[in-house]
Amino acid sequence: MPTYVTTPIYYVNAMPHLGHAYTTIVADVYSRFRRLCGDDVRFQTGTDEHGEKIAEAAAKAGETPREYVDRIAATFRETWPLLSIQPDYIIRTTDADHVKTVQDILQQVYDKGDIYFSEYSGLYCKGCERFLTEKELVDGKCPDHQVEPKAITEQNYFFRMSKYQDWLIDHINSNPEFITPERYRNEVLSFLSEPLEDLCISRPTARLTWGIPLPFDQNFVTYVWFDALINYLTGLGYPDGPDFATYWAGAEHVIAKDILKPHAIFWPTMLRAMEIEPYKRLHVHGYWNVDATKMSKSIGNVVRPKELVDAYGVDTVRYFVLREMSFGLDSSFSGDAILARHNSDLANDLGNLFSRSLTMIDKYAAGRVPERDSATLLTPDDRELMSAVSAMVVQYCENMDAFKFHKALQAVWEVISLLNRYIVTNAPWELAKDDRLADRLHTVLYFLAESLWKITLALGPIMPATAEKMAAALGMWEQFAAAVIEDVQEWGEIPAGTVIDKGAQLFPRVDKKEAASAPVAAKPQGEKAAKAPKKPKSDQEPEPALGEGLISFDQFKAVELRVAEIVAAEKVAKSDRLLKLTVNAPEPRTIVAGIAQHYSPEALIGQRVIIVANLKPAKLMGIPSQGMVLAGKELLADGTEKLVVTTVAGDVAVGSRVA
Ligand code: MSP
Question: How would you classify residue 494: left for phi > 0, otherwise alpha for psi between -120 and 50, otherwise beta?
Answer without folding.
Answer: beta
